[in-house]
Please model this.
Amino acid sequence: MAKKVGLSEEFFVGYLNDVPVLTKRFLKKTALCLLGIILIVATVLSLNQKPFSNSNFDYGIVSTLEGHLFLKPFPHLRLVNTTTNESCLLVGFGKAGAEKTLNEFEVKLGHLSGKRIRLKGQLIHGNGKRLLQISANDFPELLNEFKEETPTESVAEKITTHEGEIVDPKCFFGVMKPGEGKPHRACAIRCISGGIPPVLHSATEDYLLFDENRQPVNREVVSLVGDVVTLKGRIVTIYNWKILLLNTDDLKRQARAVQQTRTFTLMQENITLCSIK
Amino acid sequence: MSASYKAILWNRYKKMYDWVLLGFVLIYLLLFISITLVANPEVTQETLIIRAFGSLAILLLHIILMIGPLARLNSAFLPILYNRRHLGVTMFCMAAIHGIFSIIQFHSLGNINPIVSVFLSNTHYESFTKFPFEAFGFLALVILFLMAITSHDFWLHNLSPRVWKTLHMMVYVAYTLIILHVLLGVLQFETSPMFFSLLGLGMTSIITLHLISGSKEYKKDKAIENVNGFVRICSVSEIEEKRAKVVCLQDERIAIFKYDQKISAISNVCKHQNGPLGEGRIIDGCITCPWHGYQYLPHNGSSPPPFKEKVVTYQVKVIDDEVWVNPKPFAEGTTLEPAKIIN
Model:
């Protein structure tokens, strides 16, 4: 009677073509276990992701919008032919504001602010807002109808306080999902550094951020991007956009506080390291 | 084994291994992508790619890191270890797709170089929770890249086994960096406890398996008393025919083989990838490594021609049915007379 060989008695050599019988059986069972693990992990991970927003970026689809172009305080197109009081925020290609592209348009077409134009670009839409990514290759059509150079606006009487995360509107309103939170912090910093106006995304409203003189605060808010912050300012409404006009001194103080916290944390770590030594 | 350079020494088992691996990769990606699209149809293609490939890379890395200790604890897992480098290169490819897409998505088309942006966009290096997690991922990818491009015997020979092994032990550094990358990145955003649970389970499994297999090896090493000169090891009958007993003398592991009424001792460490020769068998008169089948002649520790691998050899005596070994090694490939077993 042949001696029964156990699994531990078998010896596997990879380059020999015959895999021992019990080893083969063991490998099949192991493969099935691995398959089970793969199915479980894929299912659990995919089902437990946070829901994504229903915002969208019409990548590759060129839309044409008609309206009055305003360059200040932020570049936008006050849309005509719509029943809503809507304005479309303009942004550039990539992580850049629209200013450079609009300057190129003005070099060829002359002063554009307040003029009615037909503009091509790729739409970004979410949270009831629309943005248009414009490109230097898509020159606008000038319609020669002039409006005031500054848009109609209403200014709130009171200064109010708002809590939220500073994001970049291009990603947040549709280009990226998620366009907020820690995974997106670096991207938002690049977008805001590139000239896209920052937005404070609070639980109830999204505010474009400018200083009291309606000048950009991109540089001042960069160290606060991606964190939950509390900002104080006067709200200005320009069509369907709300702007929070911030006190630059307050903003600088807040940025400095972040810097000091960083230095303090570093000092604490240094002290800890010294005591270890 | 190969005496000349070949990109991949294919055999039937390796092909089967790779087909199964490819099947697993495709099943994971298809399942992750299709469930996400059904449950979360608003997802963007870029996010889907970044998450599917990133999570698959981490899963594969966990499997890779478990194979080693599992094979130490149970030799039945050795066939999975045999082609582990293909698994490693596949894992790197998945991680590279994740990394490249993430850099394009989050760091390109900005006002600074995308690679610089990985390190200098978020500069909260002082804070644990705000730490730029991308830096951890990038550094891990660099380590995995170095490991992937040197995952070939050509590099093993040219870098020397010691350097090669040290480089490939960096996988544990890469693993730590990847865990930090996930903990300080996506897990600061995603709130489901399932993510933490799965990651915790994976980490615990890896640490536990390493501790168990490590303690087993430690006990084995400590069981023998180290004495200068010849050391009594065991009785002849305690060693199975065409197999070895492994002992640790003066901090070196020695594999003592019994075959054809003879006893020989050589280093336990295979020249290929430091495989445990003492867990191998004697096949066709050669000690055969259980990891990749590298072979050595028992009396001189040399691979049979045309192969050139050599390991150190040790003097053995059999006195009154007891095996004695001198822990002082002879130069690699030194021929030593095997001790004869007299019944």
Notes: The mean pLDDT of chain B is 92. The longest strand of chain B covers residues 252-259. Chain B touches chain A through 71 residues (CB under 8 Å).
